[in-house]
Predict the 3D structure of the following.
Amino acid sequence: MRAIRRTWASALVAGSLLTLLFVPSPAAVAVDEPPVVTGAVFNDPQGTTAEQDAVKNHIIKAIDNTQSGRTLRAALYALTDTGYSDALRRAHDRGVQVRVVLDHTYSTSTAATQLKTTLGTDRTRASWLHVCPKDRACIADVTVDADKNHINHNKFFLFSRVGDPGVAEDVVIQTSANQTPANTSRFWNNAYTSVGNTELYTAYTAYFNDLADENRNADYFRQGTTGGAEKYYFFPQQSGDLIVDVLNNVLCTGNTVVGSASHKTVVRVAAYAFYRADVANRLRALADQDCWIEVVYNETDELAALGNHARIKPYKLRLDNGTPATEGDDLFVHSKYLLVEGNYAGHPDTKWTFTGSHNLDVSSLRENDEALLRVEGAATHDAYRGNFLAMRSVATLTG
């Protein structure tokens, strides 16, 4: 399928193409690259095996480069890919302290069972695996409802150090990808890595410990800025809506360099699930104020708000794989991110990225354990924008 294109979009693409065409000279390429660096990684389920596995390979490379005596923590929703579990087991066997919090839903998979056998469940030991209760998140203190599945939906990895001393300390990898084979071969995903931001690493570690301790709180919501470019948000949030608050910080005018061809602020949303009317209505209000809005989604019930507007372009990214024998194994966007290019919080001509495990549905806001990162800066934003445009190019305009 081809996306229906609009003239106004071509000017937005130009900056990305210039960035993608830049190739560093041989002298600028480091001979010995560190095992992980700050920045974004994306997979492509339609690409080569390496492109499909890009996020997975990035995380496993970090695991395999974690040395004996260091600590590795992972908060996961789904673990069925033995590539991940085998890497974690190898780390434990060479003396890494491996600690995993896993949602109950996939806790009996082969990968999870093998990891549990290796690590054990005794949290007085250096390595362990803790499983959240059945039909419950680890933190979100929500009354059990037979019609709902409250979950630990997190997907992050923490490393006290990757590689040799001083190379990559205090590493956070926040991804949208579950640790399953489908998340490489069928789903578009992303991962953002932060290296050396001790405040961010410490905040994530405290959140991880609360997950492991099952420190239940219906309104756990935490947020905080750090010494680096990142700000963190941990859920559930029982009142208000963080994403609406983020959009309330967006101004459509005041830019002189970035944004649309006429320098209006551009907001782009990649959403696996989009079911929050307040968010959709706020996006439409911004479009009424001359912002440009683009959404690439897998599923939504908000097309009434997102469609039929000159400055809102919703694109559905769910592709039939064309193989009758595997009917239902569609390819779709699984990323959950929001990009602001323009005037944000009184800062014109700036670029911002919000990414994590947080879907635009009520469960992610009120009922699940979730994490979201805000990253300030052009390099990260432009990498995500390139990924967004790549997904948009194979999506279908629906409004």
